[in-house]
Amino acid sequence: MNTMVNLISKDIPTRWYNIIPDLPEPLPPPMDPKEGPSRIQNLPNLMIGECLKQEFSQENWMDIPGGILDLFMKAGRPRPLFRATNLEKRLNTPAKLYYKSEFFSPTGSHKVNTALAQCWYAKQQGFERVTTETGAGQWGTALAYAAAIAGLKCTVYWVRSVYNWKKDRLYLMKLFGADVHASPSPVTEFGKTLYDKNPNHNGSLGIAISEGLEDSQNDPKATYALGSVLNHVLMHQTIIGLETQKQFEIFDDYPDVVISCLGGGSNFGGFAIPFLGDVLKKGKKIKFIAAQSQVAPNLQGKYEYDFADYAEITPMLKMCTLGHRTDMEPIKGDGLRYHGSSPILSLLRHKGYIDTVAYPKDEKHVFENTKMFIEAEGWLPAPESAYSVCCAIDEALKCKDSGEKKVIAFNISGHGFLDLPGYQAVLGLK
Ligand SMILES: Cc1ncc(COP(=O)(O)O)c(C=O)c1O
Description:
alpha/beta; binds pyridoxal-5'-phosphate; 430 residues; 41% helix; Rossmann fold; four-stranded parallel beta sheet
């Protein structure tokens, strides 16, 4: 039986898919708050020009520049789609399980897909430095790597609760030449207001975004790169799902269920959006499930306008949100701990196209299920990706009960080689 399909490099998708024109209703645009300066007018000072254009584009397909395609290949694209035959046997399920391997990545995750694109555009625009936030550390490492390749400097504000336990990932960012600050940090004015009150503040993605934005705004040679949430980020990530569609054709199969973990929405969006396009345009029937944590079930939040960052520097986005100043407890899959989710996915959630499951904050069920996957398939998922694996196993076990032979596709957004203390802590490995 065929257990792996990959594409050859000449078959790598050469266009990104922009779902915006295909959405069931127009995507609500960003909005200014009632008070204070216009955040929308400030956007060109915050974002890379080409990314800002892409953010509002109504073009369905966008050619990937040759320079970015070359970088994708250097970063190991295309990436295989595996059939999890060993796991199917172990679960004794009639379901067929397929997983996309974004863990084949130089820094460990799917985040390199948009990091390479953003740094390539930033360099073309003449910037010398990129700044950013990171939660799990995967985005910070991806941007540090992409910046190094593009010849840019990189500054990362890293949520402190994760910075404190992922020392090896810190060293990797430093090997790429990045400056890294635990956030909230004393180096930005906004960070200092929180740091001075509590130097051990756990931090959050919303706070780290505010710090990165403030830093780049104060330096005309710097720009900000965001690792998730925004339309152009999800569009860059559609390379994942577009490859997967071609790979399913070679497998001569098609998914009934599409699953991925969701923090801000970039890996879920990248994997699912091409299939959501099939549902919207070709009448396909697919169940989409976003795997989340009960500490940050943002897709179960209110669908309303909210800020993307804690300090309210960004415009307000219409999204499913828990509130931009909500406290959320740290977890090992900390990349999922964000208050809001992408406007595109929020609209589709609001319209009933996407289901969500939120796992308990002790993460035991998530890591125990993932241990089964590790034993059966041999790959080590990142803690965030473990949510995707866990959800796929839960769905496969439902098929065992019902006897349904569903085809379940899930995305493994990253590897966990730099996250082993997380597995150790939750599973009590000795
Ligand atoms: C490996 C991995 N997967 C998933 C996520 C969640 O982010 P997003 O929802 O943007 O994919 C992160 C965030 O840091 C991550 O590091």
